[in-house]
Amino acid sequence: MKVATTKSNTQLVLNGLLNENPIFRLALSMCPAVGISTTVRNGLMLGVAVLFVQVCSSCTIAAIKNYIHPRIRIPTYTLTIATWVTVIDLLLSAYFPVAYKAMGIFIKLIVAFAIITMRLEVFACKESIGKSFWDGLGMGLGFLFGMVTLGFIRELLGMGTLLGHDVLGFKPLLFFALPFAGFFCVGFMMAVFNYVELVFNRMKKKRG
Amino acid sequence: MSRLKFKGLFCAILVTLVLVPFSGRCASSPSNKFIQKSAFKGKNDIVITFAAPVEEAWAKDISNYRVYEEPDPDIRLEISNITLSQDRKTVILHFDEELNQNQPHVVTIRDIKSQGKNLGTAIVKVKKLYLGFLFSIFIGAMLIHNFVFTKYLGLCVFFGTSQKKSTAVGMGITFTIVMVASAMMSWFLYQFVLKPYHLDYLQIIVFIGLVSLSVQAVDTILRKVNPVLFKAFGVYLVLVIANCIILAVPLILADNEYNAAESFMLALGAGLGFLVALFLMSSVRERLELANVPPTYRGLPIAFVVAGLFALAFLGFSGMSIF
Which residue from B159, B244, B315 is facing A180, i.e. has the nearest CB? Predict the structure, then answer.
């Protein structure tokens, strides 16, 4: 049953960042991508939180995979994730109370993000701890990358600032700073990823 | 057959909708028989109606009234002035600051003087009509603060199951039922176990564990007891766990300290709001199949743009207040 992956550690990380980017390619865990990607700082915070939870729960499940009965594996995954989310929730509320308030309910909702459960189900329950760590890191970084990109676009175009510093001096498109613009923004970014893939495939065809 | 079942479900939901508010507590009842009615008026006023004309000198004396919000008896609210109606039966208390009408206010009226007699002190509770409050929670969760379009929750499942109308309705109904059941259980656990024993920090683990275990239980029971119903709704049960809304509602209930009836209305509103969102979206996406969409936008990207337009439309509900 065990099918050890043949990919190297770097490939695993790159896979999470680009090929299977959780936000733009797999279209999982969209709620935070739409809801609180209004600034780079928010994106960074939630990205780091998800990275932490993903890596920790991947390692935990990989370590105890032989003791989990297959029929109750989903509740087990959920409870493992919930434990790590509680840890990060308490840590953030203690050390970064202001940013934690801005994030609202989303930190607690990391539990329900499909991406983490899906990685545990697809990857961590079959692989060694080391591989799971790199896969979790890749997925977490992919999510972080997606959130920061969205935050970058929305903060720059909407407010003309980056990380709170005034960069442009004017507000090009206030529209992007409004909460519902997240839908449009994610849609555009997905289209961009699709377009890059299209061009890439065309070039490949020409060459070979 | 399945259509009949849908109707039955809708009827059941409607009946509970009508019955439950009546089981909640009813609007204010004054402790002193002499006071007939007390209510909020506008943003800054409280109106008190007496059974008979009162003496003008007594009624206009501000020191005879004491007003505070029920949770904070120490903080007295300043009355700016008092007007008495022509028939001397109705007193209007004006306040400088806006009243927080979501909290019940307690008005203490000292030594009521009417036609030369002293009628004793009365304590009156003023609150908004409770049925209206419940209804506003329901409408608020369903339309004004729609969880999908204004809070951006539950999007994975929303985009995953809104391709066909039949799937959308099935998912919506399953979700509403599980939502109401699990919210009531979480409310009970939070109020009677977690809070008394100061285990608040465990709320994430307890809520999500409760949801996933109850979904697993419903799955197993339904499979054995009613295979027909399981065939119709079983597929969606697993998806319910992956929906953020199922966790967001218990967390909101715990934060706002809602009581049982209010929790029920919020959960029902959240579930039906999700159903409405799914239905609207699936209607559009069925048409999109026939449209000529640029290749890079085909599938999810265009669905996101449509959802954005819906979110823009739902902004129209914001600021709407009923009751």
Answer: B315
- So what's the pLDDT on residue B284? 92
- Mean per-residue pLDDT of chain B: 80
ipTM of the prediction = 0.85
Highest averaged pLDDT of the listed ranges A42-56, A175-189, B25-39, B220-234: A42-56
In whole angstroms, give the CA distance from residue A125 to residue A76.
11
Backbone angles phi, psi at B42, to 5 degrees: 60, -150
pTM higher than the cut 0.90:
no
Q: Which amino acid is at A161?
A: T
Kindly state the percentage of chain B with pLDDT values over 70: 89
Q: Cβ contacts of residue B179 below 8 Å, gap of 6+?
A: B240, B245, B246, B249, B267, B268, B270, B271, B274
> Which residues in chain B have Cβ-Cβ distances shorter than 8 Å to A89?
204
- Domain residue limits, chain B: 35-128, 131-317
Query: And the tokens for A201?
Result: 């495939």
A84: nearest CA in chain B? B205
Chain B residues whose CB is inside 8 A of the A93 CB are none
The pLDDT value given to residue A5: 61
DSSP state letter for B148: T
Q: Which pLDDT belongs to residue B323?
A: 53
CA distances for A169 relative to A34, A84, A172, A173, B126, angstroms: 26, 41, 9, 13, 52
Distance from the A8 Cα atom to the nearest Cα atom in chain B, whole angstroms? 30
Neighbours of B115 (CB within 10 A): 9
Q: Tell whether B136 is within 8 A of chain A (Cβ).
A: no
Mean pLDDT (whole number) for B258-268: 90
φ/ψ of A104, rounded to 5, equals 65, -135
Chain A, nearest residue to B313 by Cα: A180
A130 three-class SS? helix
* C-beta atoms of A184 and B304 within 8 A: yes
The stretch B171-199 carries a mean pLDDT of: 89
The CATH number of B35-128, from 2.40.280.10, 2.60.40.3250, 3.40.50.920, 2.60.40.1220, is 2.60.40.1220
